[in-house]
Structures are given as C-alpha cells and as structure tokens.
Amino acid sequence: TAGITQAPTSQILAAGRSMTLRCTQDMRHNAMYWYRQDLGLGLRLIHYSNTAGTTGKGEVPDGYSVSRANTDDFPLTLASAVPSQTSVYFCASNPGTGVDTQYFGPGTRLTVL
Amino acid sequence: GQNIDQPTEMTATEGAIVQINCTYQTSGFNGLFWYQQHAGEAPTFLSYNVLDGLEEKGRFSSFLSRSKGYSYLLLKELQMKDSASYLCASMDSNYQLIWGAGTKLIIKP
After folding, report:
1. Which residues of B touch A40 (CB under 8 A)?
2. How distant is the Cα of B7 from the closest Cα of chain A, in angstroms?
3. pLDDT tens across the length of chain B (109 residues)
C-alpha cells in the first residue's frame, strides 16, 4: 500500500499566488493533520481533521485553509502566499481512535519568493 | 502551558551508547512518543511510553518518568545509519502531539 502521498514534492511560488498542497492516504484513517517544519522549531500543527466532514485549527492556522470532503483526501490551501510560509509541509494520519501513532507523508518543500 | 525541551545536537561514536533526554509539560498527558527523522525525509515512529519505566526494542530503549516530566531515548551499538534527528512528542488530553524541536545526532566513525 502507498500509505500517505503528498504532491508536489517541492514548489517555488511567487508571493501573493495561491497554492493547494495535496495529501492522500489509503489506510482508511479517520484523523489527518497538516504540520509545518522549520529549522530550529518543532513540528507545528496547522490544521487537523478528526473525521471526514470536520476540521479544526491547530497552533498556526493563519493564512491556511483545509477541507475534508472524504476520508482519503486532506488538501491544504494557501490563499495568498507570503515568504514566511516558506517551509516543509508534512501531512500525517492516524486511525483517530485515541492514543494512535501518526504516520507521515514524504513532505512538500515550499519556497515563497 | 505546554512545552517540550530536548538538546539541539549531540555527537557520539560508532559502536557507543547515547542517551537523548526530553522534558515535557503537557496538560492531560496521554503518553510520550519518539520519532526518528533522517535528513530530507519524513518522521517515522520509534517508541511510545505512557507508564513509568523502560521499554526496550532491540538497540533502542525509551524511558519515562511521569512524576518528573522526563523521558529519554537510549541508542546502543550506534551505527552510522543512526545519524538522524530524534523528535520527542507528548500527547495531550485531545490526543494531539506537542513536538520538541528535535535532537540532531551526529555519529562519528
């Protein structure tokens, strides 16, 4: 099985442009997460979804939006990118039954110029 | 508040033992996770502790003291492939993970 896939692998984006980072999992996990990882900082939660049709804000949600139309997909959208959104973005999922291990996608490296 | 602290970087010698410490302050604590992350790759799960004591998995062991808000990851018989960042994360009352910044482990021959 593929587990979790993310696309694109990397992207250079002009400031002010919009972009959607894609995340798909085939493990039928209920919960999905978007993190950003910056040098010297821990993974920071942007948005999460405990089940299809619901989403919630994490620690750093400003400038980002998500949707969860079905179990498998959890896209992250930057409506108008700014240079401070340059980061590595990881999508993760787990069964969402309580204390579960999170499984990570390979990440998207985004540079906003 | 919620906080995780771990050293930024450690260096060890191939074949030796290294202990990576982590202290945490988490409301509604639901356990402590350790992940390994090689450069340019995704984090992968190593261990989970919720009860006090030592959990051993081959060359890797993880320890937890809930009363002290303290955990460590012990790596034995170090190999060059163990060069990576090691991420400590505590799970809060909402089953979400609070992450430390990671400890970069450099293994020298």
Report:
1. 8, 101
2. 11
3. 678 999 999 999 999 999 999 999 988 899 999 999 999 999 999 999 999 999 999 999 999 999 999 999 999 999 999 999 999 999 998 899 999 999 999 999 9
